[in-house]
Write a structure and sequence with these properties.
The complex is a heterodimer of chains A (232) and B (193). The N and C termini of chain A lie close together (8 Å). Chain A has 232 residues and is mainly β. Chain A has 1 helix and 12 strands; from the N terminus they run αββββββββββββ. The model of chain A has no long low-confidence stretch (mean pLDDT 96). In chain A, strands 2, 3, 4, 5, 8, 9, 10, 11 and 12 form a 9-stranded mixed beta sheet that branches. Chain A has a two-stranded antiparallel ribbon with strand order 6-7. Chain A has a single domain (23-222), classed as Aromatic compound dioxygenase (Protocatechuate 3,4-Dioxygenase, subunit A, Sandwich), CATH 2.60.130.10. Chain B is 10% helix and 29% strand. With 193 residues, chain B is mainly beta. The mean pLDDT of chain B is 95. Chain B has a single domain, classed as Protocatechuate 3,4-Dioxygenase, subunit A (Sandwich), CATH 2.60.130.10. Chain B is built from 4 helices and 11 strands, in the order H-E-E-E-E-E-E-E-H-H-H-E-E-E-E. In chain B, the strands form 2 sheets. Chain B has an 8-stranded mixed beta sheet with strand order 4-3-6-7-8-9-1-5, with no helix packed on it. A two-stranded parallel ribbon of chain B has the order 2-10. The chains are: A mainly beta (232), B mainly beta (193). Chains A and B meet through helix 1, strand 1, strand 3, strand 9 and strand 12 of A and helix 1, strand 6, strand 7, helix 3 and strand 11 of B. Strand 1 of chain A pairs parallel with strand 11 (191-192) of chain B, so a sheet runs across the interface.
Chain lengths: 232, 193
């Protein structure tokens, strides 16, 4: 079996990042133990596209009760690639987000803002043969939280990526170009200086559809096969 | 070929329930995976993995989610097409009750090769955790195999026991208790590959 590239520590936030207060007691203090990749790590769940309802990629349509959700329609699309730039097909991409008022469907969200009965805020898709995913959604509102005085999360969409094996797992957040809240957000800024801009989606006129929705492009890079196969 | 850099991880946050584990938390949305892998016709010994996740202050983590990946009772990992029988992939949150913990109903995996003891890979996500962490669950009643397992033998002896789930039988139901300690003198061994 071929081996996969390691987690690139220069690309990921440190586990304990004190400005993000809940990281302080919830993250390991010991260094992880590095162990060889075995069949356990080199395999993972695979999903047949037929398990997804047809509109699961369209958050403006997959949870309607009485009409259309409120807010600015967006198309968010991009490719899932490995570090060699090779597009990866068959990747399960799941998203969840706040509605246009900055309110999550989760019952524990205490933000005093309107629930949208026509917007669950969750969707799934599987990348096509060229590694592309595409969602139709509503621009999420900014969200206040208790980390520090007058703290607001930037507009963001949560992403979950299930790739070829369990080592390629990624859970992250996508942000929007030009968001004035980005410099103040300890979660976004926990990512290293050279890496965090890779979390930002760019406005794309190519993805924008006339009379329908603005387009944003965001590519995702996950661990992939090492260039040279190893001998067991 | 171009050389790309990995997309940074970000925390799963507190509000994943309706997106990642909707049925468990009673939302009207389909599940990709659940905490119950035992269906009719699945071979093997039915077991329950159960555990609490503790932060550095000894408090139970509520906004946490576990994914497990394992072989079937014959030691085979699922491939596309096998999914209808035994997927090997579970996903559960630690819940919102008084006693937040995860529970996965599955079968005890067989050995996947001649060297490794039976085990289940666990991936943990939580509010406050900037990147998911990996660990492995081994079984307390596999002492002989555990003694020869290359991963367990690599660990300092005093930390090895953090990866061994304790078998408990109660009223014909088999539990393996596997608590996870994010910090402290019982800090669980976390792995990188």
């Amino acid at each position: 079996m071929e081996s996969f590239t390691p987690k690139d520590s220069d690309s990921h936030p440190p586990l304990i990042h004190p400005p993000y207060k809940s990281s302080i007691t919830r993250s390991p203090t010991e260094e992880p133990i590095i162990v060889p990749q075995t069949i356990t790590e080199l395999t993972g769940p695979k999903f047949n596209p037929s398990i997804l309802p047809e509109d699961s990629y369209d958050l403006t349509n997959n949870s309607r009760n009485s009409g259309e959700p409120i807010g600015e329609r967006l198309i968010v699309a991009g490719r899932v690639l490995d570090e060699n730039g090779v597009p990866i097909s068959g990747v399960m991409v799941e998203i969840w987000q706040a509605n246009s008022a900055g309110k999550y469907t989760d019952r524990e969200d205490q933000h005093h803002a309107a629930v949208d009965p026509n917007f669950l805020g969750a969707g799934r898709t599987i990348t096509d043969e060229d590694g592309w995913y595409r969602f139709i959604t509503i621009r999420p509102g900014a969200y206040p939280w208790g980390n520090h005085a007058n703290a607001w999360r930037p507009h963001h969409i949560h992403f979950s990526i299930l790739g070829k094996n369990i080592m390629t797992r990624l859970v992250t957040q996508m942000y929007f170009e030009g968001d004035p809240l980005l410099p103040f957000d300890p979660i976004y800024n926990a990512a290293p200086d050279d890496a965090r801009t890779r979390l930002i989606a760019a406005f794309s006129l190519d993805l924008t559809e006339q009379g329908f929705a603005l387009g944003y492009r965001w590519d995702i890079v996950i661990r992939g096969p090492k260039a040279t196969p190893f001998e067991d | 070929m171009s050389y790309e850099k990995q997309t940074p991880s970000q925390t799963v946050g507190p509000f994943f329930s309706y997106g990642l584990t909707p049925q468990q938390y009673d939302y009207d949305y389909s599940d990709l995976a659940t905490g119950d892998l035992v269906a009719d016709g699945i071979q093997g010994e039915a077991i329950n993995l159960i555990g609490t996740i503790y932060n550095g202050d000894g408090q139970e983590l509520r906004h946490a989610i576990i994914e497990s990946w394992q072989a079937d009772s014959m030691g085979r990992y699922a491939k596309m097409g096998l999914m209808e029988t035994f997927s090997g992939f579970a996903r559960v949150g630690t819940g919102r009750g008084e006693d937040p913990r995860y529970r996965i109903r599955t079968v005890k995996p067989g050995r996947v090769d001649q060297r490794q003891a039976p085990h289940i890979a666990l991936t943990l996500f939580s509010r406050g955790l900037m990147h998911h962490v990996y660990t492995r669950l081994y079984f307390s009643d596999e002492e002989e195999a555990n003694e020869k397992d290359p991963l367990l033998q690599r660990l300092p002896a005093h930390r090895r026991q953090t990866l061994i789930a304790k078998r408990v039988e109660a009223e014909n139901v088999i539990f393996y208790q596997f608590d996870i300690h994010m910090q402290g003198n019982q800090e669980t061994v976390f792995l990188e590959f």
